[in-house]
Specification:
Blueprint lengths: L10 E4 L3 H12 L5 E5 L10 E3 L5 E3 L10 H10 L5 E5 L2 E5 L2 E4 L11 H17 L10 H9 L1 H16 L20 H9 L1 H4 L10 E5 L5 H9 L6 E3 L3 E5 L4 E4 L4 E3 L2 E4 L3 H7 L5 H7 L4 E11 L9 E3 L9 E4 H4 L13 E9 L7 H14 L9 E14 L5 H14 L2 E3 L2 H4 L7 H17 L28
Parallel strand pairs: 1-2, 1-13, 2-9, 6-15, 13-19
Antiparallel strand pairs: 3-4, 5-8, 6-7, 10-11, 11-12, 14-17, 14-18, 15-16, 16-17
Length: 482
């Protein structure tokens, strides 16, 4: 049955983060202008936003760096920035272990541990390799996978305490299917060689897609999305638009203001569990599956100091339970303009991230004090350096947790949404941490735009499936096959 729509309501996009903005931009590129982009926040950017605090320090909503798996993301950046407007860095990352810094990835640098602990870690690593016969670890849950891959000593020294802090979830409750680009594999022969080769000990490792990365010279990560939003038709981008309901029978979304906006297809980039809760005819089994999805909340504490930026490292990891944050980012190293323009040579800034279970109450002031004290204890900030800024941002939906039941839940939820003309995309639309980077979000936004307008296959989500019917360009609002 065709659905009536307004000139603005052909394709409605919920969420003006990287995925939603990329979707709208691609629709424009394809010559399809019958779209509307709704964002509940006062400005576009979503999880990629940046803020400037009253003291003039710029902060991201968590640790972001710019790297890419996709040509579409590369072309987007080249169209938004001149070469000099992006700063390029080689990653320099370490793990705080006791009173020392171990280069990242931890499992590649066992020679940097105290001798007894290094020997225990190496023995466990060799035993784990021998037990699985040199083949990749095969385990359903993350805890078992870590033990099978790295051995008990390494898990106890680093993997269990660090990942428990990051995920605020028991590792036995997490799946292991997401680890491909997120947890570094280990070459046992290279680890053995590092114990004997002094040159190998100096290396910090080049593993992973973010071994080199870029960062905007000004404005933080949010500058990317501010510029992308600025090239869209402002009359089609509505901020402060909080969606409270989706009426799939009539093809309308309902705003908190009571306004109803019609749609033919809905691209939803916000949290999938919230989408299901607001969808009027979501079946009981879909609602039940959505309630099993889990996510983390992150407190970003930004701390500015009256001390110059002298540390050359990019970001640091902290498995210790007595340090509140799991990661600290040397944010003034990313870009000098992240501190107030008048004092770039005499100020530094550190951005910390602390994961907490959803709906857990914390005292932001107490957390900020604890983060400040931890940075000083670890020698990252001079003891006498004065605080120039303290800024706390609570990120309610920070990361989707890849739990053991996640994929089964998604198999119930996503097809049901798609049948109703709702296309969940982006980090929390797909609820898949393993494709949760900014470049993944942009690729998903571009892919769904192409799919809806031309019928093209979505390359990231459906790399081998045949694309179903596309959206018609006809003025009557009918849905036709391409």
């Amino acid at each position: 049955m065709p659905r009536h729509h307004t000139v603005h309501g052909r394709i409605v996009i919920l969420g003006a983060g990287p995925c939603g903005l990329a979707c709208a931009d691609e629709l424009n590129r394809l010559g399809f202008t019958d779209w509307l982009l709704l964002e509940s926040a006062p400005r576009p950017g979503g999880l990629g936003s940046s803020v400037t605090d009253p003291a003039g320090f710029t902060w991201d909503l968590g640790g972001h760096v710019v790297f890419s798996h996709f040509g579409e993301f590369d072309r987007l950046l080249s169209g938004l920035f001149t070469p000099g407007e992006l700063l390029h860095h080689d990653r320099s990352s370490f793990i705080r272990y006791g009173d020392r810094w171990v280069p990242y990835p931890f499992q590649h640098h066992l020679h940097a541990l105290p001798s007894g602990e290094a020997e225990a870690a190496l023995a466990g690593l060799l035993a784990a390799r021998d037990e699985r016969g040199g083949t990749p670890a095969d385990a359903a849950d993350f805890a078992s996978w870590l033990h099978a891959m790295y051995g008990t000593a390494l898990v106890e020294q680093f993997f269990a305490p660090y990942n428990t802090k990051v995920w605020a979830t028991a590792l036995q409750e997490m799946a292991a299917s997401w680890v491909a680009e997120r947890v570094a594999p280990v070459d046992v022969n290279a680890v053995l060689a590092a114990f004997q080769n002094p040159q190998a000990r100096a290396g910090t490792g080049r593993w992973g897609p973010n071994a080199t990365f870029a960062f905007p010279a000004r404005g933080g990560t949010g500058e990317i999305w501010r510029r992308l939003a600025a090239r869209l038709d402002p009359s089609r981008v509505l901020t402060g638009a909080h969606v409270t309901g989706v009426d799939t029978r009539s093809g309308h979304i309902v705003l908190a203001s009571g306004e109803r906006l019609s749609y033919e297809h809905l691209v939803a980039t916000g949290p999938l569990d919230e989408l299901v809760a607001m969808t009027d005819d979501a079946p009981a089994e879909v609602r039940a599956a959505a309630r099993t999805l889990r996510h983390t909340t992150v407190a970003m504490v930004g701390l500015g100091y009256t001390a110059p930026t002298t540390d050359e490292r990019s970001w640091l990891y902290f498995p210790q339970p007595d340090i509140p944050f799991y990661r600290a980012t040397n944010f003034s190293k990313y870009a000098p303009a992240n501190v107030p323009a008048s004092d770039t040579a005499s100020l530094c800034s550190w951005m910390t991230e602390t994961a907490i279970p959803p709906d857990t109450h914390i005292d932001p002031s107490a957390l900020a004090r604890a983060c400040d004290q931890a940075l000083r204890r670890c020698g990252l900030v001079p003891e006498r350096a004065e605080l120039a800024s303290v800024h706390v941002e609570m990120i309610p939906y920070a990361y989707p947790v890849p739990t053991l039941g996640r994929d089964a839940a998604l198999d119930v939820i996503v097809p049901s949404m798609e049948m109703r003309g709702i296309h969940p995309r982006g980090r929390f639309g797909t609820w898949r941490y393993e494709i949760g980077n900014m470049d993944h979000a942009v690729k998903m936004g571009i892919d769904i735009a192409r799919h809806l307008v031309t019928g093209a296959r979505e390359e990231l989500l459906h790399p081998t499936t045949t694309a179903p019917a596309s959206v018609s360009r006809s003025a009557t609002g009918t849905r036709e096959a391409s």
